[in-house]
From TrEMBL:
Compositionally biased tracts (Low complexity): 1-16
Location of region: Disordered: 1-26, 49-77, 346-369
Compositional bias ranges of the Polar residues kind: 60-74
Basic and acidic residues composition bias: residue spans: 354-369
Protein name: BTB domain-containing protein
Length: 369
């Protein structure tokens, strides 16, 4: 899977990683041998684990408060007393960390305890807390429904810590609860692309990648999410290739219509038809900003779905000029555009199995102090 775009957990001794005064301590395992110091958590969490409710963890908490100067106020971290055995069984990441040969594993064996500082750029502390509750079988405190934003942050962590099997029951439940409805925006589609990639949801992967390809109006990027580069590159290539071919064909059709009209224009209504079709076509391409200069990759400002819509027969209409001898049906601009669009159906999304088969191993970085 992709790079989490997150700072790895870092180990620290009691002398260098002191817990803030008044910071809550949640004992997920009273006999735990790992202390996880979690940053970026709401400051109104209850001080006692038993008072923690699923509603507090559903992803609706407000962002950290800011001072009058606009800077984020200093926050107290949350400390979790956890079990290395639970962590190692659920997560391949922690399993590797606690093995012999790694500094963290050696410290745990030598001292009987280790402290890790948890910070992630694309996942808040609440998402990490939910993950730890699941791993430590605190199921009654895990929310049954979460927001899309929370699910995205959770997917970042599951990808990073390599623990999809351990959370499958909850991730399936959360996805089923919020996946209904059409994906309307690129940023939503990117969230769903990551979610469907991490949790192997084929239909949602196809839908979200299709939205990104057709709705993005610039070079496609992961926006900092740990989506594999191969997926991003294929979507971007599919977008630019489609636009290149479609715009080339529109230019060819414009030239072809001019030559065709001029060839058959012999006076009367035919002259008017030539001016009508060629003039309307030229004006529409100018209006769409695809005539001159001719757009080039990466086609900034152009969305596939919008260009296809604007080129539809209902939008590309030339005045109907007919006489008793020639109805000019094939000459009409709408007929010409229908012919072009038949060769350019809206591109479909990607198939998940294209990337699952022979997928390279995740690029994980061993935590360092």
């Amino acid at each position: 899977m992709g790079d989490a775009g997150s700072a790895a957990p870092t180990a620290g001794s009691a002398s260098t990683q002191r817990k803030s005064i008044g910071s809550p301590v949640y004992e997920l395992d009273p006999d735990g041998d790992v202390t996880l110091v979690v940053h970026d958590v709401p400051q109104d969490l209850p001080s006692d684990l038993k008072d923690l409710t699923p509603e507090l963890l559903a992803g609706n908490s407000k962002s950290p408060k800011q001072t009058t100067s606009g800077q984020t106020a200093e926050q107290r971290p949350l400390s979790l007393r956890a079990s290395s055995k639970h962590l190692g069984l659920a997560s391949r990441y922690f399993s590797r960390m606690f093995k012999s040969g790694f500094r963290e594993g050696n410290e745990l064996r030598n001292n009987g305890h280790i402290e890790l500082v948890i910070k992630h750029e694309k996942a808040n502390g609440i998402a990490f807390l939910v993950l730890m509750l699941i791993i430590h079988c605190r199921n009654s405190q895990v929310p049954r429904v979460v927001s899309r934003e929370m699910l995205t942050a959770f997917a970042v962590l599951v990808d990073y810590y390599d623990c999809c099997d351990a959370v499958e029951v909850f991730s399936d439940m959360w996805i089923a609860a919020i996946e209904q409805g059409r994906i309307g925006y690129v940023h939503q589609a990117l969230d769903w692309l990551l979610i469907s990639w991490v949790f192997s949801k084929d239909a949602r992967f196809r839908e979200s990648s299709g939205v990104i390809i057709t709705a993005c109006n610039t070079t496609i990027t992961a926006n900092g999410l740990p989506i594999p580069g191969a997926i991003i590159d294929m979507m971007d290539n599919k977008r630019t290739s489609f636009l290149q071919i479609l715009i080339d064909d529109l230019h060819k059709q414009l030239i072809g219509s001019a030559l065709d009209c001029l060839k058959h224009s012999k006076g009367g209504n035919r002259e008017i038809c030539t001016a009508s079709v060629f003039g309307t076509f030229t004006k529409r391409m100018v209006d769409l900003d695809i005539l001159t200069p001719k757009p080039q990759s990466p086609f900034p400002g152009i969305q596939i779905w919008k260009l296809l819509s604007e080129c539809s027969a209902t939008k590309m209409q030339s005045p109907c000029i007919t006489d008793s001898h020639s109805p000019h049906d094939r000459c009409r601009l709408s007929a010409r555009m229908s012919q072009v669009l038949q060769s350019h159906p809206k591109p479909a999304g990607l198939e998940l199995n294209m990337f699952r088969e022979g997928k390279p191993p995740s690029k994980k970085v061993r935590p360092e102090a």
